Each structure stands twice: as structure tokens, then as C-alpha cells.
Amino acid sequence: MYFTKYLLFLQKIVLSPTERKCTMIQKTLSLIKWDAIEKDVELEIIMRYQEVGLKIVGFKVLCPMSREIAAELYKEHEGKYFHERLMGFMTQKITIALIVEGENAIALVREANGATDPTKAAVGTIRQMYGTGGPANAVHASDSEKSSAREIPIIFS
Predict the structure, then answer these.
(1) Does residue 115 have a pLDDT over 90?
(2) 17 inside domain
(3) At what angle do helices 105-113 and 42-51 cross, to 10 degrees?
(4) pLDDT tens, position by position, 8-18
(5) What is the pTM of this model?
(6) Does some domain include residue 3?
(7) Cα atoms found within 13 Å of the Cα of residue 38, Cβ hemisphere only
(8) Total domain count for the chain?
(9) Is residue 2 part of a domain?
(10) What are phi and psi of 17, to 5 degrees?
């Protein structure tokens, strides 16, 4: 009992308020698409993730992404009007796959990327700066923990 009280006391005096809160370390998938690579901005994209405290813990070059991987990755979009165009785009040229890790990584990556449609993305986001529209929106990112858990092994198996 005394030891537990002592630990709690130490935690209160040693740790700052931000260190006292529980952190949620996540891993998420980010793909740098060939349209961004052809603009030679892949390092800028990686640096954007690092600037918000995230780490790159996985890196893989797909040259090009196979149709099988793309089909598995985007299977939730099967039957939608943009599915075939997306599949063709993703399997056309080089893609850089990243596993990005950090506190609240999913939300931070999605915030840095901006809205899927570059014309609706906030100023200064990756998609607003480097995307042009449709599947040529510079990057892909998992949208949830469930998606990350499904998508990472598809690329990094």
C-alpha cells in the first residue's frame, strides 16, 4: 500500500501534465502514390509525418503494385463507380508503402493528408499541395484502427 502511494506521489511531482495522460500508440498504413513520386515530393511527405512526431517503422517499394494487392487493399470499394479507375491507377506505376507509428498516428496522418478530394482539402495539406484529383491524390491512408490492422499485412506480409 505504501509503495503504491509513493509511486503515485512520484508520478505527480515528476511527470508533466501531458506525460500523465495515457498515450495511444498506433501504427497506420500510408501509401505515397506514383503521381506524388513523379513530382519528386516523397521526402516532403515523409518529413510532414515526422514533423508531427510520427516515425516511419516500415518502408516498401512496390514497382508496380500488383493487381492482387490492389484488389485486396481496395476490396471495400468493389462495385463503386471509381473502383476500376482506382485499380488501374494504383497498378500503373511505382508506389511507396509506409508503416507510420506514433501517438494517434491514424488521425495525424489523415490530418496531414487532407480530404480525399484535393480540391476540398485544407490549404497546406499533402493532397491540396500535391494531388490533382480522382485517384491522383498523392497519398492513401488507413481510416481507422480496423483498416490499419487489415491493410498493413496486405502490403507488408
Answers:
(1) yes
(2) no
(3) 130
(4) 544 444 444 55
(5) 0.85
(6) no
(7) 11
(8) 1
(9) no
(10) -55, -35
